[in-house]
Design a protein that fits this description.
The protein is an alpha/beta fold. The chain is built from 20 helices and 30 strands. It is 31% helix and 22% strand. The strands form nine sheets. It has a seven-stranded mixed β-sheet with strand order 5-4-17-16-18-19-20, with helices on both faces. It has a five-stranded parallel β-sheet with strand order 7-6-8-11-12, with helices on both faces. 54% of the residues are buried. Bound molecules: 5'-O-[(S)-butoxy(hydroxy)phosphoryl]adenosine.
Length: 656
Amino acid sequence: MSQPTIESILNEKRLFEPPAEFANQARINGMAAYDALYEKAAADPAAFWAELAEKELHWFKKWDQVLDWQPPFAKWFVGGKINISYNCLDRHLTTERRNKAALIWEGEPGDERTLTYAQLHREVCQMANVLKDLGVKKGDRVGLYMPMIPEAAIAMLACARIGAPHTVVFGGFSAEALRDRLNDAEAKVVITADGGFRKDKTIPLKAAVDKALENNAVPSITNVLVVQRTQEDIYWQDGRDVWWHEVKPTTSAKCEAEPMDAEDMLFILYTSGTTGKPKGVVHTTGGYNLYTHMTFQWTFDHKENDVYWCTADVGWITGHSYIVYGPLSNGATSLMYEGVPRPSNPGCFWDVVEKYGVNIFYTAPTAIRAFIKMGDDRPNARDLSSLRILGTVGEPSNPEAWMWYHKVIGGERCPIVDTWWQTETGGFMLTPLPGATPTKPGSATKPFPGILADVVDLDGNPVGDNEGGYLVVKHPWPSMMRTVYGNDERFRRTYWEHIAPKDGKYLYFAGDGARRDEDGYFWVMGRVDDVLSVSGHRLGTMEIESALVSHPAVAEAAVVGRKDEIKGEDVYAFVTLEGSFSASDELKAELKQHVVDEIGIIARPGEIRFTDALPKTRSGKIIRRFLRNLASGEEVAGDTTTMEDQSVLDKLRAGA
Ligand code: WT7
């Protein structure tokens, strides 16, 4: 691991108090209220969560034990029976929410759909019954490879309803990546669409599924359920493939929610790590339901009539927790948008905010930076006065982007919640509460009540104010990942052994460096491991290197991140070629495409540099630090005497 470095944010001193009129009406109205909650939770986390679980959720049967902690394995609400689809749907049907919009959906070509809670419930029940008809039983895994259409949420809730864990694979991943994930999860059915619309193009999702399943490459799959979206011609395999719109009309809309054990698996979501293939992060039912419910409610200060919009894709944890489960569990109106800003319509986000009167808007710093580049005219031309709260997630928010968001989008009246969390944490860990926490541009501020976070050294000792260290969590929380699917040992190794206190205590560490300032504010400084954040998407350098090396021309590859104004980081690859191949622009293009085929468009290297050799230590380890310097055009910093062959670096410098 590399040592976290302190960046320019060290000098950020601005402080923004929640506007008084906002704070007065907020659920958590002021720092005293936050402090009281925080203290109460810290004194007895289990009791704190149990009280909320009882008050906020429906249980078929109450738990026997709140927390069973056998480090690093936690169980929450042991013995409790619950169904998250019931909490997101059924329980609202007996209230005034029955005919309230659950999902408002805006399609890329401008089509639209609104589903009330009653309508959504009906569709979810129908899809659940279709899955049952296809032989899916409680415990069977179901793969989802979907565009951003209501059926993506419907499919997730349908799986949850019958107790079949879903594994959603982002539509931007390739057929290869999809195949790996379906195989790892041993999925029984895949739910997909003929295609999806993205940036003035269509993406052939069904064709990718066909390719992934070619030659029985995923033997566990029995059926493919296909939603019609683009109406393009697709290959059809009778007996395996089933059209949703054909089976739906004759399928019953009655399907009771299966009472699930609180610790039954709700979903697997794959994410990149430092070594090997992506790992399947396992989340379970009860704790995840409670934590996404509470964090959504308090962090977004949710009010009954709010229109809430999270711009993420359901293929990421953000979409799981804060498009589908958190909002719907609260009976909120969640807006789903199929599009992304594109050259032909860079103002589409603001069009959507104005059109639907969005009150709570949640997006990523990379998007904000892209909007800054496009100028203020587009947002200024729209009525954004409905906005009440703005949020960010995915990477550290640079103070410039934060200030622009605050001024141009928020009209200086909307609190910004910069939420730090991870696929593994299930929900927000560090975040302001908008009516309480004074914000500082670039800081995710303070822990959510019940989260005991700290910044420590490698032995787990807390470091001093403003000293860089490793961001850890010291006590289990309800929505923490339970394990790596099928690999408890990898779970232990990856998250619990890097920081090893001498007293044997377990600290959760998932790879970020941070510092805490004199006011107790956390400043997340980014990954300290070999994981890149490209447009807020997490990519393992090893994963991209393996993809490159699988090409016959490549002998060796080393991937590092290069700072990018919009994406945060861009993929920069150093490649040495097999003897019979020679460097050319064509080969560069081919290798970039090869990475796209192996992983997906999000991993496409921005730059590939051919070299005769890579800088290595005498023991043969690639010295990435030097490569990072070279990629960003900086002077190579640090001790170069550990290198095996000094001339390698000279050549790389000369060729720069
Ligand atoms: C990594 C997790 C959680 C959903 C999106 C990404 C980085 C996330 C912030 C933030 C600074 C952030 C971290 C983290 N990250 N939010 N507000 N400030 N960094 O989920 O793919 O699991 O990635 O994203 O580096 O470890 P993910």
